[in-house]
Every structure is written in C-alpha cells, then in structure tokens.
Design brief:
alpha+beta, Jelly Rolls, four-stranded antiparallel sheet, 9 strands, Emp24-like
C-alpha cells in the first residue's frame, strides 16, 4: 500500500489495514510542509515529527511512538483483523506556522522481509543462494497465512449469510401464518355478522 494524503499540523489521520495474525508490518513515511512563498511542498522543517499509533482489533495499543519528519516503523500483529494505523504531526517552536498544510507519503508493506543486498553481496555464492531461499520460504509462509486468514473470513461470511437466509425464511413463514390466521378470523367474523343479521 503506497499513498500520500494531506493533513494539517496536529491533525490525526488514520487508515485501516486488514492483517493476519503474527504478520510483520513495515511502514515508511515522509512528511513535506507547504511553503506559502514558493507555493509548493518542501522538505519538512527541523523539529517537525510524526506520532505513530497502531491499535489492534481488540482496541489494544500495539505501537505508540514519536518519530522524525521521515522514518520507518514496524510491528507484528498479535491478532487477525482490522488494525488502525494513525499518524499525527507535532508542532514545535521550530515550525514557522503551526497549522500549516502537510503532505504525508506513506508506504506500508504487510508480511515482507526485505533482503539486505549488502549482506547478500558480501557472502559467497552458496550462502547467497541459502539466504535467498530463506527469504522465499518466509514469503511462502506469509502467503499461506494470508490464504488461511481469507479462508476464515470467507467461512464467517458464509455462516452469517446462512443465518440471515434462515431468519428471512422463518420470518416469511411467520408472516404467512399471521396472514392466514387474520383471513380465517375475518371470514369467521363476517359469517357470524351475517348470521346475527339473519342474512344467511
């Protein structure tokens, strides 16, 4: 997931990411500040930081830390489900205009373990193959975990659909019984009315 969005200073912006359990999430961000004179977004002024908060589906705070104007944060999910990732800039005396417009570039990688190319180049060919193989195995585990999570979600959705269909069926049966009962009651009432008036 790579995106950018605009925000005011001290304004909190959140995104929701559906993440399987025990999955590494790495986020890279960069903050730019609007320059009124140049009418463009420039690199952030010193002292402008970004407060990152990550909340689990059970409302537990998994990460809460202040970073600089550009940085990387990471966490490992403890539960499957929707994690809320919030970013909020801080204003300090070094910032010329508190409340100025910011542009935040955000890149979130779910379940990826990045290869360190310098480590790979420093090793001989056999170790390089082993290193890349371990990386591929990690990716396979992540894909398998993603598939299991999607299977669980599909099963929950199917159960919910079946329960909804069952409720609709029972409600239709109840409505039919009520309508038939009202019809029988109306016919009996009319019959009794006609008999009492000696019309029948």
């Amino acid at each position: 997931l790579a995106l950018y969005f605009h925000s005011g200073e001290r304004e909190e912006k959140c995104i929701i990411e559906d993440i399987p359990m025990d999955t590494l999430v790495i986020g890279n961000y960069k903050v730019q500040r609007w320059d009124v004179h140049k009418q463009d977004f420039l690199e952030s002024a010193p002292g402008l930081g970004m407060f990152v908060t990550v909340t689990t589906p059970s409302a537990e705070v998994l990460l809460s830390k202040l970073y600089g104007p550009q940085g990387t944060f990471s966490f490992t999910s403890s539960l499957s489900g929707e994690h809320i990732i919030c970013l909020q800039s801080n204003s300090t005396r070094f910032v010329a205009f508190a409340g100025s417009k910011l542009r935040i570039h955000l890149d979130i990688r779910v379940g990826e373990h990045f290869l360190d190319e310098t480590v790979v180049q420093a090793k001989d060919k056999v170790n390089e193959v082993n290193f890349r193989l371990e990386h591929l195995i990690e990716q396979i585990h992540h894909i398998s975990k993603e598939q299991n999570y999607e299977r669980e979600r599909e099963e929950k959705f199917r159960k919910t659909s079946e329960e909804t269909n069952s409720n609709i069926l029972w409600w239709a049966i109840v409505q039919t019984v009520i309508l038939i009962s009202i019809g029988i009651w109306q016919i009996k009432s009319l019959r009794d009315f006609f008999i009492s008036k000696k019309l029948v």
